[in-house]
UniProtKB/TrEMBL annotation, chains A, B:
Name of this chain's protein: GntR family transcriptional regulator
Entry keywords, A to Z: DNA-binding, Transcription, Transcription regulation
PANTHER family: MANNOSYL-D-GLYCERATE TRANSPORT/METABOLISM SYSTEM REPRESSOR MNGR-RELATED, MANNOSYL-D-GLYCERATE TRANSPORT_METABOLISM SYSTEM REPRESSOR MNGR-RELATED
InterPro entries for this protein: Bact_HTH_transcr_reg (IPR050679), Chorismate_lyase_/UTRA_dom_sf (IPR028978), Tscrpt_reg_HTH_GntR (IPR000524), UTRA (IPR011663), WH-like_DNA-bd_sf (IPR036388), WH_DNA-bd_sf (IPR036390)
Residue intervals passing through the bilayer: none
Pfam families recorded: GntR, UTRA
Occurrences of domain HTH gntR-type (ranges): 11-79
Amino acid sequence: MKLALNHKSPIPLHIQAEELLRKMIADPQFQNGKLLPNEIDLANQLAISRTTLRQALNKLVYEGLLIRKKGVGTKVADAMISSKSANWLSFSQEMKARGIPIKNFELHVSWIYPEEVIANFFNIKTDQKILKLERLRGKPEGPFVYFVSYFHPRTGLTGEEDFKRPLYDILQADYNIISELSKEEISAKAADKFIASKLETEPGSPILFRKRFVFDQADRPIEYNLGYYKADSFIYTVESRRS
Amino acid sequence: MKLALNHKSPIPLHIQAEELLRKMIADPQFQNGKLLPNEIDLANQLAISRTTLRQALNKLVYEGLLIRKKGVGTKVADAMISSKSANWLSFSQEMKARGIPIKNFELHVSWIYPEEVIANFFNIKTDQKILKLERLRGKPEGPFVYFVSYFHPRTGLTGEEDFKRPLYDILQADYNIISELSKEEISAKAADKFIASKLETEPGSPILFRKRFVFDQADRPIEYNLGYYKADSFIYTVESRRS
DNA sequence: GAACCAAATATGTACAAACATAGTGATTTA
DNA sequence: TAAATCACTATGTTTGTACATATTTGGTTC
């Protein structure tokens, strides 16, 4: 890996350092608890001060990607698949940041008549067709999550979009819809036959189930999303402060 | 508001400054877009360097509580962050609020030597005994959650407390410790024999597992908590808004 | 009065230096 | 041999300093 920054660039050095560190985090060379180079050496190699380097490190520590320990060193946080609330990174962006390679197993688009619950949430009639998106994603070894999304007609999605791009990108860039608010319900359940077959596991095996309601800037419903995560392949993290 | 830090305290100045800033953030005086004092003045008032003050400011900016603007100043961000809705209610308070009658099945207090993980989190040695609290609770028909809590020696808990009172009450009222920050990890797993027997279910049946790290006002660890919820008896809700 | 310019103000970036403290491992001591 | 000590390493804390850059403000000129 090339360890050098462009001191002539108008991009601040600590931002450049942060980018570089993100690449290091995704590098298998530093996985499995192996330590990063120490701050002083790394700062010297990059020809920046330790303070500036720490500025970059702090940001990544705060994001939970790095773990520092006094007297020992800095290592990449365990690449357990996790999702931080109030973190608006998309699934693939987040996995990428952690250097977890993602494989898309299935992607299926259809137009369906919504069930009662969904029609109710979207505040539409059950005879108005809506877009349904099913996705099976996971590691190269096998799938670990099955997503189902339903979209409000208001989104304008045609079903012809390239759903390999992050969803929130598509909505924002192409349809000017910003996902502002998300309400989620997380629970555990046993896999039924359908889910078990999708996730290549046994019926009855534990599943982390996430129901997600997404709203736009005007608090209007735009997406209804179900996620079935294979147990132990996914951890949901929440941070909350009294105030 | 008293603007002074204790330079003799072993608590780092940037942590003290952070605490003070949190109080300022909560102060109506600085709400509604009014600017905080500028960095240089504030640093002078607190008798710390601007760098140290910025260390504290940065943390709050990362958390989305403060917004800085070059050439203008720093103001408190418009409220509305993540998920504190039902989060700070105690278990029994929450169930009460939902009209669910609660039965306490077991309550067991013991002093144990901490495992590596816990000692590490508490930053203590594994040969220092800590208080462990186990609780089995649920509906009158049967238990649905098994809690295990470990407490940092700093809490001062003796094990003689009346644990039928809400925990956070005991800590706050009797020991002047406020649970400020909580980090949680939620995942699904299969019940092992022990958990299954406690929850009166089958080994292998799905469990919602919640690991909780609780910190005090100075971000010092005070509690490590594990919760095993029978599937479908518990739903975790999160609300998050893009900042 | 409008346009322009310059000073004042506040945050942003960056460095060098020093000392503190936690963890590790080797060396010395009881 | 086991415990105590010490040196070493890496991060943690803190200061002082300097210059850069965005924004606002007030004065000057046309």
